[in-house]
Design goal:
Four copies of one chain form a homotetramer. By secondary structure, chain A is α+β, with helices and mostly antiparallel strands. The first copy, chain A, has five helices and twelve strands. In chain A, 23% of the residues lie in helices and 44% in strands. In chain A, the strands form three sheets. Chain A has an eight-stranded antiparallel sheet. The longest helix of chain A is centred in the C-terminal third of the chain and has 17 residues.
Chain lengths: 281, 281, 281, 281
């Protein structure tokens, strides 16, 4: 016997820009949205019966229509409105909405922000994932592609040495990463924008201001601080590629290179991930 | 109380090429390898104690050394050798090795394959993931980035219509996808190369030779056929983006467009995934 | 005084697929088209006067309409039809059409090509550029992203050594590249498909079957052979990144590495380009 | 007779990071460098004679060594030092150095910039190209990948309509682009950092604060302003893809969409380029 044991479908990479034309200036929201549904869709697979299959094109249309009415506030609220809308269909058990927000800043014109011209910028991308099911609404927020570097206070030593080990120990290396952090909120209603800004600031601050014995320890220190200082967070997952910066050997040229000239690399890279949670105790 | 609830680390994007210089001609293996470990690594996080932390640089070195001795056969055997090596360290509970194989074909010179010149090609990328733990060795194989298209025998109709639905029904659409399929083998020892070739051939053949009522049904038909026809497979997971090809409206130019001229798109795309398993019954 | 000294505009990345439904099976053409015009467009810049500005959206529409009537033959003919169409507008001095053709192969079903299912493949991308002006029509053809490798018969030695030189000489290295070759045809009317196939075959054959003292010499040997053997070609330009494959140092592990295990890299890479022409003499 | 009519070679994608450890805090320079030489290299092609071929590996080494001594000032000075170094070799006629600078900002810790932790950011990438020949030194500077958007004061109308034209006229569209601008300095010695900052500020300011009848007119207005206001600039070339944002048709859902909800797209895109020069008059 052959069974369908899991399935999930939706629309990904829905791109949308909303321009709000206030008297004091325009506001731009620029989002990439993904929608995924789980539920009673077995017949679509095994019988070619599409009775329950909300078309992914319909999902896209819904994302655009909801952008008109549900995007005045944070992306988490927009995601929740979409998630609850799709959960309202009887065949849907879980609706998951992922939103990535691309940042546009008003262009500075002689000290004043332009009312209607923007430059894309930002350090990392703000993301939110809202998932709605009969069990309730779960909201996660986070940052992706936040590229950060410590040029000091980063070591890596004391690791085991076997016949395959050539890496020297170091008490002062350069550590760089393209950080992903996604945290779960304990409640579905929050001041999402203010909380995001505060969590992101803590994340950067603790990353900058700690002594690192390894990427692993850095993750723990940053993640623990986020959970400690932000009671809205119940759990956080971090993924940090270790984007190695190798000291260039300048000795063939009669030069010393005291942690000054590095080659940044992306292949291969370390990849370190961990999940940290607020316990019951 | 704040807890470390999960962690995992390793080296990704290890690039390696092995050239074997046989009298009859050279052979090229071109791999991208990722290694990930789980186990007793809590102290590295919470105490900055690296005693147990096998350096990811050591992992990379090991991948190169093992390429000399363990890469005469299939990539699954190479992956298994690496996985079992790392599982041999007492602090390791699970070692997972992912291998992607990039294809090089001997260049044809006047009807004869060149002994030492190659062109990169291939339709999709062969992948294998071997994971070793106290529970045993689990081998998965598959293809990624296999781009395929049905220009006939593909429909999508009978889906529900609500106020957000504008997609017309169709009994003859173009269906294109960048297919990922990963199947689990029931046993860790097989003729992996022959099995892979046979499974891949079935996959393409069934994809080509079936009537599709939806991407969901196509996944089911293909996945079921793979499990039915290849007893080595116990489970298969497929992920199919629906890379929409929209019919261009040529009516403003006084022309009919009877399923002839399409605009291929990548944003947004449908995303359909399912897992099919051989049951006990 | 401030002058507009050059300008050019058009539409790029027009994606189009054409399906021809013959009784014996479907045929798929999958193209990416770029259109660029030069001519009397100064007023659009300096006066905001769009009287002469053929909208790039119109160019896109034209590319789709012409795909119906002018795409039964080679991409060069399609490009020429578009180029001559735009040159027909009085304000246009030069119309340049670039076409990239993505390859789809019929899927094999039990030894027979499927009539309506395809897999994307191919080694490199075929390209054509047609440019029409009062001076006539110029046709260029070529390949891009043709990734090739020589595992033998490739050396690099005899280069100068100064205080910045550390590279050892070698009489047997691995040479890999992502080759671009664009050749100019001496006449605008040819059997473009047959000529392309023949030139491409020569290119691969000579690449495989020559001794290389450097990438520079390889370019010369290949380019000269193409011009010598294919009288249709008047000039050829080749661009070859040198995608270094570094021999892994296995001596720390007590192992020899006699040109067997390599690390392929993309950053940094050599970049070698040259143009070779049939002279008058 | 077959001739080598042009050739050029070098090393591209040299990645380097320099950390300067001042008492008040670290400074990070993060560059991607490309080096290209033209000169007496014919024998390398036609005779396999590498006597004159400075190895591209040597170029890479030189870039690292020069980063120690010549990177305290602007990237233009670093590029010039490298260019003049290579021009010093007798076989070199032209040495061209391209430098792209990636921006790192000190992380803010409770209102104070961290001395040794950075976040990658920036709006666009600063670039410089220095080319040295017997004729002298030519310095170009610019920005790449500066993504900007006008949500007002942008129109496109008055263009010709033929049977292929469907685009409606508009007096209020959204205009977005990923701008490249490269300007030539009239002299090889300037306060490059201050000049770059001033030119970039003008560029953004004029982009924000003008009425656009087309991308063409915008290029002219911006480029002319740069040449007018910055006497250091003798010529400027701008390349602007028109990244169309299409108004979503919400009428099927009974909703008006008055320039509010857009779909951003990248394929196809307009592509408009022009060069503007300070004339003699």
């Amino acid at each position: 016997m052959i069974e369908l044991v899991a399935n999930r479908y939706g629309k990904a990479a829905i791109r949308l820009v909303r321009v709000t034309r206030d008297p004091g200036g325009h506001h731009v929201r620029d989002l990439t949205v993904a929608i995924a549904l789980e539920g009673d869709f077995d017949a679509a697979h095994t019988d070619g019966d599409n009775t329950n299959v909300i078309a992914t094109d319909t999902m896209k249309n819904t994302a655009y229509v909801f952008a008109k009415d549900h995007l005045d506030g944070p992306i988490e609220a927009y995601g929740r409105a979409l998630a609850e809308h799709f959960l309202g269909e009887p065949q849907v058990d879980v609706a998951t909405i992922n939103v990535r927000a691309h940042q546009w800043n008003a262009i500075d014109v002689a000290g004043t922000p332009a009312p209607d011209a923007f430059v894309r910028g930002g350090e990392g991308t703000r993301v939110a994932t809202v998932s709605a099911s009969l069990g309730g609404v779960l909201v996660e927020a986070g940052v992706e592609d936040l590229i950060v570097m410590k040029t000091g206070r980063s070591a890596f030593s004391g690791f085991p040495r076997d016949r395959y080990t050539t890496l020297p120990e170091t008490d002062d290396r350069l550590m760089a990463t393209r950080l992903t952090a996604v945290w779960r909120y304990g409640a579905p209603d929050l001041d999402f924008d203010a909380t995001f800004a505060a969590v992101r600031a803590t994340l950067l601050e603790v990353f900058a201001d700690h002594d690192s014995a390894s990427v692993q320890e850095s993750i723990w220190i940053v993640a623990r601080a986020l959970v400690e200082r932000h009671e809205e967070i119940s759990e956080i997952r971090m993924v940090l590629p270790n984007l190695h910066h190798w000291l260039v050997d300048l000795s063939p040229f009669g030069l010393e290179n005291d942690r000054e000239i590095f080659t940044p690399t992306t292949e291969p890279h370390g990849l370190i991930e961990a999940t940290v949670r607020r316990g019951e105790g």
